C-alpha cells in the first residue's frame, strides 16, 4: 500500500522563459485516488503531459513505479492508462469497433474488450455507433479505452468536464471503484473541488504552476477558519464592552457579533461576560468555511500551505 507510484522532484516546465509548472513535487502512492486540483490554466494538463512523456520537462525528475521516466519510458507507459482532455473516437464506428482499433495497436486479448465494456457499464451499447452516444457515454468509452491495457495507473484529465449531474455521478462512482475492485491507482484532475472531495483520498492543489497543498481531504478541511456568530441585545454596546476587555470581535448590524476563534473556552468567556453585564444572548452559532471557500481562498491568495 505504501509503494510510491508517482514521485516528481522539482518538476518544471518553462515556455518562453515563464514557468508554467514550477518545482512541483507530487507524491502518489499505490491504491490512492489523487485529486489534482487547480483553476483552469494552473498547470494541471501540462504536468499530466509530462507524466505521460508527451512533453519534456525543462528540469526536474519524474519517477513512476519507482523508475526514471526518461530511461524507462516504454515500459512505464505500457502500464499507464490515460484520458487527457476529450476522448478521441470514430463516430461512425460502434463502441466495440472503436475499442478493437486500440486493442490491435496495443496487442491485448480480444476478451479484454468485453471486460472493459463491463467495467464502464457500456455492454448493452457496444453495438451502437458512437455518434449516438451521450457525452457521458463517450467519456466512459474513453475510460474503457484507457483500461484496455490493464494498467496499474490511470490518469484522467477533467473526466467530468461538461457532463450533466447524472453523468458526473456515473464517472465518480466508476473512479471510486478502481483501487479496491481492480487494483488501479488513479490520478484525476479537476477544477471543481466539490467533485474531488467526493472521490479522492488525497489532494494536490496547483496554482500558477506551483503546488500549494498536498495532503488528505481531512487535512484540507482543518484549514477552515471557524467563526462564531452571536445575536445579543444592544449589540453595539455589547461590542464595545467586549473590545474594552480585550476580546477580538467584529460587529455589523446585519450579522451581529463575530468571533474568529475555534476555542470553546474563548466562546464561553465571551458568553459569560455578556450575561454578567446583563446582555441577553439570543443565539450562538458556529460557521466554518466550505471546502470551496478554502480552495478559492488558497488559489486567490497564492499562499503556500504545504
Query: CATH architecture of one domain, please?
Result: 3-Layer(aba) Sandwich
The CATH topology assignment of one domain is: Rossmann fold
What is the H-and-E element order?
Answer: EEEEHEEHEHHHEHEHEEHEHEEHEH
Trace the largest sheet across and list its strands: 7-8-9-4-10-11
CATH superfamily of one domain: P-loop containing nucleotide triphosphate hydrolases
Average predicted local confidence, pLDDT: 90
Percentage of residues assigned to helices: 25-40%
Give the percentage of residues in beta strands.
25-35%
Amino- and carboxy-terminal Cα gap: 23 Å
Class per helix and strand makeup: alpha/beta
Unreliable parts: 302-306
Please explain how this structure is put together:
The protein is built from eleven helices and 15 strands. By secondary structure, it is α/β, with parallel strands linked by helices. The strands form three sheets. Strands 7-8-9-4-10-11 form a six-stranded mixed beta sheet, sandwiched between helices. Strands 1, 2, 3, 5 and 6 form a five-stranded antiparallel beta sheet that branches. The protein has a four-stranded antiparallel beta sheet with strand order 13-14-12-15, with helices on one face. A hairpin with a 2-residue loop joins β10 and β11.
Give the structure's gist in a few sentences.
The chain is 36% helix and 27% strand. It has 306 residues and is an alpha/beta fold.
Amino acid at each position: 500500500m505504501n509503494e510510491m507510484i508517482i514521485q516528481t522532484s522539482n518538476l518544471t516546465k518553462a515556455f518562453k522563459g515563464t514557468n508554467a509548472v514550477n518545482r512541483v513535487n507530487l507524491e502518489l502512492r499505490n491504491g490512492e485516488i489523487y485529486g489534482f486540483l487547480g483553476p483552469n490554466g494552473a498547470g494541471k494538463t501540462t504536468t499530466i503531459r509530462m507524466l505521460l512523456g508527451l512533453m519534456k520537462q525543462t528540469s526536474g525528475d519524474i519517477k513512476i513505479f519507482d523508475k526514471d521516466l526518461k530511461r524507462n519510458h516504454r515500459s512505464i507507459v505500457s502500464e499507464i492508462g490515460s484520458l487527457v482532455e476529450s476522448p478521441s473516437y470514430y463516430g461512425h464506428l460502434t463502441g466495440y469497433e472503436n475499442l478493437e482499433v486500440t486493442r490491435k495497436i496495443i496487442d491485448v486479448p480480444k476478451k479484454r474488450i468485453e471486460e472493459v465494456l463491463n467495467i464502464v457499464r457500456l455492454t448493452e451499447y457496444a453495438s451502437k455507433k458512437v455518434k449516438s452516444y451521450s457525452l457521458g457515454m463517450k467519456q466512459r468509452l474513453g475510460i474503457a479505452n484507457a483500461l484496455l491495457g490493464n494498467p496499474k495507473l490511470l490518469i484522467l484529465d477533467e473526466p467530468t468536464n461538461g457532463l450533466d449531474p447524472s453523468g458526473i455521478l456515473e464517472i465518480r462512482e466508476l473512479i471510486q471503484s478502481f483501487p479496491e475492485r481492480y487494483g488501479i491507482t488513479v490520478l484525476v484532475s479537476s477544477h471543481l473541488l466539490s467533485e474531488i472531495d467526493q472521490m479522492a483520498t488525497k489532494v494536490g492543489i496547483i496554482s500558477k504552476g506551483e503546488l500549494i497543498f498536498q495532503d488528505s481531504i481531512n487535512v484540507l478541511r482543518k484549514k477552515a477558519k471557524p467563526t462564531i456568530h452571536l445575536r445579543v441585545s444592544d449589540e453595539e454596546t455589547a461590542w464595545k464592552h467586549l473590545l474594552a476587555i480585550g476580546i477580538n470581535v467584529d460587529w455589523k448590524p446585519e450579522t451581529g457579533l463575530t468571533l474568529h476563534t475555534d476555542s470553546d473556552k474563548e466562546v464561553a468567556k465571551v458568553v459569560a461576560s455578556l450575561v454578567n453585564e446583563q446582555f441577553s444572548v439570543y443565539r450562538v452559532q458556529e460557521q466554518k468555511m466550505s471546502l470551496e471557500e478554502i480552495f478559492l481562498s488558497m488559489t486567490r491568495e497564492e499562499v503556500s500551505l504545504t
